[in-house]
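Predict the assembly for these two chains.
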Amino acid sequence: MACDSRNKLVYVLLVFFALALLGSALPVDAQDAAREPAYRAFPVLGSRLAVWAVAQLHLNFAAFILGCPIFAVIIEIIGWRTRDQRYDWLAHEFVKLTFAAFSTTAMLGALLLFLFVGYYPRFWAYLTSIFFPTYWVYALLFFGETFIVYLWYYGWEWLSGSRKWIHVSLGVLANLVGTAILVVANSWVTFMISPGGIDESGRLVSLWKAINNYTWMPINVHRLIANIVFGGTIAAAYAAFRFLSAETQEERARYDWMGYVGNFVAVSAFIVLPFAGYWLGREIYAFNQTMGITMMGGFMSWLWIVQAILIGILFLGSNYYLWLGMERIPGSERYRKFVPPMLLILTIGFMIWATPRTMVITFDEARAMGGTHHPVLGFFGVMSAKNTVVNLMILTTFLSYILYRRANRISTKPWVRTGMGVQWAAFAVAAVIVVFFGVYGYFVDSLTRIGFSVWQVLAVLTCIVIVMAIDIPMFRGARSTGTIRWGTIATRSQYVLILLAVTFTWLMGLMGFARSGIRQHWHVYGVLRDTSVDAVTPALGYAANVITIVTIVFFALVTFIFWLGGLGERGGPKGHAPAPVIAGGSDSSEGATSQARPQGATAPSEASPRIDCAGKAGARKS
Amino acid sequence: MRVPVGVKVGVFALAVMGSYSYFANSIPQIESKPPQELSLEGGQVTTAQLVKAGEEIFKTKGTCEVCHRIGQKGTRAPDLAGVGSRATARAAERATKGKPLRPGMTAKQYLLESLLDPGAYAVEGYPPIMPAVDKPPIGLNRSEVWALVAFLQSLGGTVDVTLNDIPATVGAGGAGGGGAAAEVKLPGDPKAGEAIFAGKGGCIACHKAGKVGAAQVGPDLSQIAKIQTPDYIMKKILDPAGMGTVAGYPKGVMPPTFGQTLTAREYTDLVSFLLTLK
């Protein structure tokens, strides 16, 4: 109770601080307000930078609190169906993190609104003239989401046992309402990029068409997936920090497992994220060719090189973490031979993806080279090459996961040879299709080439579906070669998790800049022009500096909030079931394990990470 | 001494972000500046100046170079080398091809049509992706379209386009002001503004504004509200050099001191008057 009061006091102070900041920033001259200027200047920073920073912070927090509950409820359902308390504990941990960040997200959202109303009144008036009815929907959804999440979090014990289904339903409902909030807010953002439902003078003709504009649905899907990735990486980074700070082996094992689950969630969603990105890009081209071309080939073209490097790091980091994780799995030695070729594919793919089309060179160098395109490397700078390698990198990452998944298991099914043969064939066929369309793309026009990416994506997705459809039954009831030694993973693996979280957060900032920057000097593209002093779209270096500062502030806030959330764990009575003991975490875990896992509980499902709660002697052997 | 985990993790995260920032600062830094409005109406512009202005628009505000090349075949749009002479043959084809058919079209009219209604007769083998240049987001005004046609004519043809060849409706409403939300209703008095124009402001010494004045030192402002945005007009008065000088006129002549010599009321009145000049 003391901690709850302290938390509330801190939140009140935070809100007060934000209001004080806002109050100091608001124009004091009442005449300014009376004149209704198009813009007002935010002190010192300038209005654009203020809006940029707050919007990015709000988006980061919103992504986390919307993404985290999605996999939290899935983990809760796994725990509920398998009657395995460890999953219930883990789901509660994830929701605890969400809950801690909830108020900050709302506060930043309110601050962003005040900034728009105060410093961009003409823009906000115009947006209101289009979307006013949706504001009510948004407010209602937000209230609904707040109540549901509070009930979900505080009702964890109350709605347990036979009432667990009600609790799980609350979790599902929280996610549905959360997603609805996302799509409403997305309609405003996407309207600014690709306005619809208005006449030539910008007046509203159809609210639904304004909402359902070209980029709305692609961004809904893209953000939904990206939120899951983001939530996973942040949760994994939290676990990594707790792992590094752990004082006992049990704690290390617990947070090793939590980090693994967070990363597993992130990687699973991350694999399909580029496909959603393709769709979004295609819709931008469909809306306005000039905007699409400016985005990919104009002043923003170098942004995609930076993006390629970041995504390359995410791919390499995710795979490296899985490879390090395999070292704590007995029986994984037989798969280590696959690591060098996978590393080679990822490295070459990374290098090709990060190859620019146009080189930055002097005039003499250009003359010596015969142009700004390198005679050999220039071929790797186009989308045909980049689409090909990113699909191969996705396939490789999926292969890493498959190997990790079966690291300590040997299938006992009689059809195992056929099954594995079909799996390898699926990988090979997908790779051949991807490479074929990549090469063929050099010999066709751009519109045809863009269509090829769909076939490449379909080949990869089909491979994933086929391989998993075989893998799950093939390893059901498999023979174990030993239990995972949770907590014994190399310390550097935890820094990889932190690297992934930092990189993904930074990448979100970069993509936010890209999404906003392609509008150039328009608030609403082609409709409402930016005539402020900030109408210039800044260069990438400036944007990168802003993104870095905002990311630092975000992590500082997250650390502070998680620290606040963790205060309840210190000293006082526990609010939820005690943390489970994970196999490998203790030499005498039997007593604690029996508490965490009820009698008669079934083993974790095949699709879930394999944790042994029954102590080392009771290793999961079928 | 044992370094706390928080410090180690913090330093690591800062190093990662710092390296990303460093890399992003080490590659080409390109800003996207909002395009400046070009006004040639009422001015004495030579053909060479017109073509030069058109070339500038081709490379900047018109965003033509995003797809078109001169002397190099593009994948998205045709090579424009020699389009000035090729336009004659293309214009002749319009009698039997394209929608709607346009028999008797001149080369000049063809070039204009290809800018204002690009889908009417696209070059075979290229997708019809070109936007109308006088509509947002490009939104060229009448002067700019005039200059652009002149530049295209100069690519292998004879420049004979005049402002009268450009329809008066070109660029109208294309400024992207945000429709109803962007309408400017200044509290100023246009009558009083006219008096400022002819009196305290001294504008009449250089400019003509409809029936007021006849000087030709600076551009004729008789239709300034039609060809320029209110924002441009307001800024131009306060920062003449910063807003650029109309082609064909000497730089640095317009005084930069109106922000100090005019009161807020007088400034508002003057802008209100200029906004009536359509």
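Chain A touches chain B through 67 residues (CB under 8 Å). The beta strands of chain A are 409-410, 479-480, 522-524, 528-529.
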